[in-house]
Amino acid sequence: MKLKKSAEDQMIFLYRYVSLSLTSLVFLFESSRLIAWQKLLLIVFLFLSVTLFTWIYRKYRLHDMVLKCCIALETAGIILLLLPTGGMDSPFKWYVITPMLVACAHLSMRYSWTLLLSYIGLVLTFCYIFFTPGQYFLWDMVLQNANLFLVLIVTTMAMQVIGVMKNELKMAKEQANETMEHIKSIYHIMETTSHNEALNLGQVISDYTVKLTKQSRAFFWLDSQEEDAPESSQTGWTVEEEEQLFEELENYREEFREEREPFFRHLPEWGDFLMITVPMTTRFVATIGLKLGPDQSLTGRRWLVQQLIFLAELSAVFLERYELERIENQLIVTNEQNRIANEMHDNVSQSLFGIVYATHSLRQTWHDQSKEQVEEQIELIQQSANQAVRELKGAIHSLSSKKSGGPTWLGTVKSHLHTLSKLNHVQIDFDIHGDHFSLPYLYQKALFRIISEAAGNAIRHGLAKRIDVKLKLTPQVIKLSIHDDGVGFETARMVAGGEVVSAGSGLGMMNMEYLAQSMGGEFDISSRIGEGTQIRLSIPVNAYE
């Protein structure tokens, strides 16, 4: 993996060459036991060695053991370099600052101080033995080189302080990025639940539970048998395992109803779970569960508890909003039914009653009337029938979105894609061929969920800037194609044996495939790194029925 050079690394590496150049220049012009060509040869060797060590530091800066060995080796080389260049009088004694900088920047404080003290001890020992045997006491050498040792100590301390500040800034940046990701996830949850079918709400919640907590498996279980309730759903298990998991949860129904705080539960053959009951005032009782790993720390679990509390409160808002919308829709339908009933009673039924009465009267008296009178009566009956037809057409027209220009399925899809395009600055082209008015409701719901999920994945995970959605509707088959220019991924790593094995494959992919297969259709996805993703779907219209 190629690492990007930081500004700190660039400064350190630049200092290595600058300091070596200055030190070599002083060494070249000062008097010593070596002649000129020997000095030049030594300087060339030093530059080659520094280049080699610099390359190793750049390539293996994330491998602590390699760095430790190389820094120790370079420091030992500097100590040996003092022997032919004058001992404590050698200008290269200052060059030890360069490996010390690398150690302070990338390794622990303990190693840096151990390296410094080892260097001071070894330099004093070598120079005392080889250069001043019996002439000075060791303490005298320490005092004579106090400036060097003081500079090394101060430099090490300064680099340690800078390292602490750098780590704090790095942690602050990571926390800021995590907060931004959290806010983006909240926005995506709100956006998804606003545009998705309510019956898909459980899948949205379980998907984002996995995303926010950075775990691999979660579920949303709703204790309700009503047909209009959102469906229980999960993320991370197969469809077969989902059924078994929810059957297991049925055994704890009464216990879950009594819980008011996050709680831990061990499910036989399933493992340890962190769960929370969603606090709601509606007719539903829901539970959010998170599969815990075997090495989950106490601090990590506290953070997961906080995330689940937040998700539970957010889920309660979504479910209560769904309940209010359901009640509102029922009231709207009831009011509309009452309005139409009143209109038919006041207009259509009265006209039909007049037609029936006039027809009965004409049948009884047409023998006693002239031809002109009979024709006049028939004409009046015809006018009344035409009036009743017009009134009936008006009532039908008010109910039909196709005729009245009201909201349609196609309008809902276009509005959703337009909102995604504006909010995320993405170009989305939607091309449709065929009669969408005759599309059955079940197909409308499934197609909307697939289009919404695919577009959302392309934006959030694929970082796409353009999405092309093509839908072809015929009486026999529905064909859907969704192509984006995002970063793409390796599909071979995404699915193996029907299970998602890569966390980066995008949430909801298996849900889209399941929707297509449940309608009797075929689902295919193709993608490559850097070449975007294409989803193709083919559903026979009569398969589901």
Automatic annotation (TrEMBL):
| Recorded GO MF terms | 4 iron, 4 sulfur cluster binding; ATP binding; metal ion binding; phosphorelay sensor kinase activity; protein dimerization activity
- Protein keywords: 4Fe-4S, ATP-binding, Cytoplasm, Iron, Iron-sulfur, Kinase, Membrane, Metal-binding, Nucleotide-binding, Phosphoprotein, Transferase, Transmembrane, Transmembrane helix, Two-component regulatory system
Names of required cofactors: [4Fe-4S] cluster
Q: Mind telling me which residue stretches traverse the membrane in this protein? A: 12-29, 35-57, 69-86, 116-139, 145-165
Record the organism. Answer: Paenibacillus terrae
Question: Which Gene Ontology cellular component annotation is one that this UniProt entry carries?
Answer: cytoplasm
Q: What is this protein called?
A: Oxygen sensor histidine kinase NreB
* EC number, as in UniProt: 2.7.13.3
The record lists the catalysed reaction(s) as: ATP + protein L-histidine = ADP + protein N-phospho-L-histidine
Give a short account of what the protein does.
Member of the two-component regulatory system NreB/NreC involved in the control of dissimilatory nitrate/nitrite reduction in response to oxygen. NreB functions as a direct oxygen sensor histidine kinase which is autophosphorylated, in the absence of oxygen, probably at the conserved histidine residue, and transfers its phosphate group probably to a conserved aspartate residue of NreC. NreB/NreC activates the expression of the nitrate (narGHJI) and nitrite (nir) reductase operons, as well as the putative nitrate transporter gene narT.
One Pfam entry for this protein is HisKA_3
**Which PANTHER family did the record assign?**
NITRATE/NITRITE SENSOR PROTEIN NARX-RELATED, NITRATE_NITRITE SENSOR PROTEIN NARQ
